[in-house]
Amino acid sequence: MASSERAERYARVVAPTLLGVTRRAVAASGIEAAGSLLDAGTNTGLAAFLAATVVQHDGSVVAIDPDEGFLAVGEARATAAGYRAIRWQAMALGALPYAHESFDASVSVHAMDLMADPMLLIEELRRVTVEGGAVVVANWGAPRENEWIGAVERAVSRAGGPTLPRAAVVAEPGNLEALMQAAGLAEVEGVRFGDPLRVQGIEGFWEWVSGIRPWAAVLAGLDDDVRRRAKDRLGREFEGRTRGGELAIGREMTLVRATVPPM
Predict the structure, then answer these.
(1) Which end of the chain is more exposed for a tag (fewer CB within 10 A), N or C?
(2) Where are the domains of the chain?
(3) With b meaning 16 or more CB within 10 Å and e meaning fewer, what string describes 57-69?
């Protein structure tokens, strides 16, 4: 599956289920009208869209992502919706090409899973955010509270498929907070909260997990028989959980806010 197809699926299926945590992240950034915000690992632009409604035409939002296909989908949607404050830039989520204190605040929502070294991104967010500005990072919570992760890993493995890449990094309680403290950020505060996934049965669940970025390419490449067996196993695991055609599956989010201390 091409990057553009994965991005379209993400925007259509995954992003709407992350609206709650993304709203909380943008609100926690404290960004105001005419302010500037960096959205690092924008996916298809949800945080950037929400921030653009706050900063308005006199402010600026820079949305970065390593995948040009995802940026293209985000930019097309932004243009259609009339968001003019957003700049879209393709780059690795490592050393960032911005000067110190370039942004009033920075956010990263569900992008840590794209990083081999999440600490590098957090250090860079600290560097490019102004003194006293907020750095906000949101990601999946503990794997045991995100039952979808283990369920899919087991189903694919037992169906004869490959081992899936890690879908959640820095997920255990305290991990993300510890990284942000180690990066030199101050006033580190974290919150974890339940955010159940609600989808239309196993087919809806499979479409959703097939849009999760660390898994998308692997699941798209599964043999048809492996895919069928994996879905059958998921159906048995979640048997009896569907009400009125809707299947609810446990998810936990973690959101950590910190501030850049004086030099």
Answers:
(1) C
(2) 3-259
(3) eebbbbbbbebeb
